[in-house]
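Posted in: Protein Modeling Q&A

I'm a second-year student putting together a small comparison for a lab meeting, and my supervisor asked me to include a predicted structure for Rhomboid family intramembrane serine protease. I've never done this before, so apologies if this is the wrong subforum. The sequence is pasted below exactly as I got it from our records. If anyone can share the structure token output, I'd also love a short note on what stands out.
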Amino acid sequence: MSIANDIRTAFSRRDNALNQLLLINVLVFVGLVLIEAIMRLTGTYLEYYPNVIRQFQLPADLSSLLRHPWTLLTYAFTHEGFFHILFNLLNLYWFGALVREYLGDRRLVSLYILGALAGAAFFLLSFNLIPALRIYPNVSLLGASASVTAIIMAAATLLPEYTFNLLLIGPVRIKYIAAVVILLSIIAINQGNPGGGIAHIGGALIGFLFIKQLQAGRDLGRPVQAVGEFVGGLLSGRPRLRVTHRNTAAPAAAAPVKKGTLPKPEQDEIDVILDKISRSGYESLSKDEKQKLFRASQK
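Accepted answer (user: helix_wrangler)
Welcome! Here is the predicted structure, written out as tokens:
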């Protein structure tokens, strides 16, 4: 099977959101690398490449943003530099798998998009309202870091006692990893990368709020999901039709419901599973317990 068919298969599956996010980032990176190589070989790099990358990066200048509004999202799928994309995608894979397992594909994508928008909002507001940041001319933002930080913070808020085995360090609870990520973001503000650090903090905040609101019964990702379904319907060419049926037959008598035949609410069982997570960590759950948590999160 060709690479093109592999990519087409990856995007045709509905339960493949994490791999799709990873793949989009890789495809954009590879595309820009090829364009840059061609322009360098043809001697047109200095003339044309800045305009190419301008179509992807988020500018701090509002007038430039008005001419390139799509960069509010494209910046979060664009990287320059191998190690930049490597670390972002490794974190997206590790923490995204955890969020996806518990919350599902749609909420993972929603969190990624909301993280990108929150990072963009913090970046734009800071560089346009804080006088001290105006010393940086022509500032722009690139990379999935805000989205990835949102996913890391969401995972830490959702399962703070979950443990990762880090190379050369050993087992570390996810809540401490999130704390280090926030600390590094603050350090970045002080050491010459204020745009990136501020965007990370915006992503972290939306990741925390996303889980807290979800636990309160409110899904902040519903607008993102609605827009995604609308765009998907347009691209597929299959408009959503509302079909009604008229039943001319006489309605059948409803069967009587006997006391005690309704399914017992699962909340008590879910509480037991959550207590187990707080005591032993998420990794201690069985596959059946994880599936019950996932089903409960869909209600």
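A couple of things worth pointing out for your meeting: The first strand starts at residue 58 and ends at 59. The beta strands are 58-59, 140-141, 163-166, 170-173.
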